Amino acid sequence: MPPIKKIESAEFVKGVVGTDDILTDGVPEIAFVGRSNVGKSSIINVLVNRKDLVKVGKKPGKTTEINFFRINGRKCYFVDLPGYGYAEASPKQREKLEKLILWYLMYADADIAKVVLILDVKAGLTDFDKEMIRVLRERGYPYLIIANKADKLNQKELSANLREIKGAAHEATVIPYSTLTARGRNALLAEILKD
Ligand SMILES: Nc1nc2c(ncn2[C@@H]2O[C@H](COP(=O)(O)OP(=O)(O)OP(=O)(O)O)[C@@H](O)[C@H]2O)c(=O)[nH]1
Ligand SMILES: [Mg+2]
Predict the structure, then answer these.
(1) What digits encode the pLDDT tens for the residues 27-75?
(2) 45 lines ligand 1 (CB under 6 A)
(3) Could you tell me if 136 and 142 are in contact, meaning their C-beta atoms sit under 8 angstroms apart?
(4) How many A from CA of 62 to the centre of ligand 1?
(5) Within a domain: residue 145?
(6) How far away, in angstroms, is 109 Cα from ligand 1 center?
(7) Cβ neighbours of residue 17 under 8 Å, at least 6 residues apart?
(8) pLDDT at 103 over 90
(9) I want to staple 40 with a disulfide (CB 3.0 to 4.6 A). Which of 29, 32, 99, 121 is the partner?
(10) 161 found inside a domain
(11) What end-to-end distance do the CA atoms of the chain give, in Å?
(12) Is 5 part of any domain?
């Protein structure tokens, strides 16, 4: 992907729940994945400096489609995925979303340039997060890990939890983040836009 210096524009294009031309139209996709309610949609809003480009949930399970946002014309898409593991969803609904996420990452033949895996730093890694890391490594996608909601922990707790996450992260960069304070925003932007 050609480097982008800064985000000048961001527009919603569409949400998909299956095969669609947008997946394979040649525009590099930067995918935001993670458990339900970890802050995927909020992070995209902070990145593009808009409060409400992406709908953010009062309740978990807000995002149910794979949503495409066009960045700087058609330089790349930010792709906001539904969350996995939402405890209150019916098993059927949860399975449907998990299948959709795995389909996108593994079988859709999508033009995925990078994956941003988002965790709630207080909750740490779940089994599905570990499975996700395995899938990302197996597919050979460049990925990085965002330890979001850092504002919920004191420095000592944060260091301890970051250490544990880094232990499971293999080669991935881990960035402490908070959408409330914008901590980590510049580091994430630099990682996303560098190549
Ligand atoms: N304390 C804190 N809360 C956050 C942070 N980021 C997001 N939240 C809150 O977490 C909740 C979920 O945020 P979303 O951005 O909707 O999370 P999501 O991962 O897109 O959720 P789904 O679409 O349901 O998978 C909202 O109430 C946000 O305000 C953060 O850095 N710190
Ligand atoms: Mg969301």
Answers:
(1) 999 999 999 999 999 999 999 888 778 877 767 667 889 999 999 988 8
(2) no
(3) no
(4) 10
(5) yes
(6) 28
(7) 64, 65, 66, 100
(8) yes
(9) 32
(10) yes
(11) 5
(12) no
Which of ligand 1's atoms lies nearest the C-alpha of 63? 23
Are the C-beta atoms of residues 34 and 40 closer than 8 Å to each other?
yes
Q: Domain with 179 in it: what CATH number? A: 3.40.50.300
Mark 22-34 as b/e (b = at least 16 C-beta within 10 Å).
bbeeebbbbbbbb
67 Cβ closer than 6 Å to some ligand 1 atom: no
pTM: 0.94
pLDDT at position 62: 73
The number of domains in the chain is 1
Its domain, for residue 30, covers 10-193
CA of 59 from ligand 2 middle (Å) equals: 10
Q: Can you tell me which residue has the tokens 């990452």?
A: 105
Assess whether the C-beta atom of 35 lies below 6 angstroms from ligand 1. Answer: no
